[in-house]
Amino acid sequence: MQNLPACTLFTCQPGYESLLSGELESRGLASSGSGPGWVLADGAPPDELCFAHLCLADAVGVAGDSINALAVNLLDLFLERMREVRLPDGWPLIFRFADGEIGLGQRGKSVEKEFRARLKKRDGAAGSSAIRRCPP
């Protein structure tokens, strides 16, 4: 499995990446990359950001040459990180895709479908109890 270095991933409204990058830099975090709706930065996420929708600390990029390879690599990482965790019934499994990349949404949905199918095969209880929405 090929993982990219860990960092903090911030999501924002597409078009607001430069504002989010500036906000992060004013808090001492240099952005190391960005794209439509997201900014990467090294370091711990600060509290109370204006332009960030989500902040994912210790985010790890997962690479693959195909939808199946991405799903397998993502599942391997997920199972490795969740090895000692007992997931409750109805745990949220949510896939989110950046806007602005043509075809990314369809590829993302295909990776999600393959990931869920493989999760059910490898860990039927976890795969069956996952839900597609955030808890209230």
Can you tell me about this structure?
Helices cover 37% and strands 15% of the residues. The model has no long low-confidence stretch (mean pLDDT 88). It has 4 helices and 4 strands. It is globular, with a radius of gyration of 16 Å. The chain is of the alpha+beta class and 136 residues long. The protein has a 4-stranded antiparallel sheet, with helices on one face.
Comma- or semicolon-separated keywords:
alpha+beta, 136 residues, 37% helix
Could you outline the blueprint of secondary structure elements for this entry?
Blueprint: E1 7-11, H1 17-26, E2 31-35, E3 38-41, E4 54-59, H2 67-81, H3 104-122, H4 124-129
Helix pairs in contact: 2-3
Counting H and I runs of at least 4 residues, what is the number of helices?
4
Count of distinct strands: 4
Lateral arrangement of strands in the main beta sheet: 2-3-1-4
Overall morphology: globular
Mean residue pLDDT: 88
For the largest beta-sheet, the strand count, sense and barrel status come to: 4 strands, antiparallel
How large is the share of residues in beta strands?
Answer: 5-15%
What is the CA-based Rg, rounded? 16 Å
| Distance from first to last alpha carbon | 34 Å
The stretches of 5 or more residues where confidence is low (pLDDT under 50) are none
- The string of secondary-structure elements, in order, is EHEEEHHH
How helix-rich are the residues, as a percent range?
25-40%
The chain-level structural class is: alpha+beta
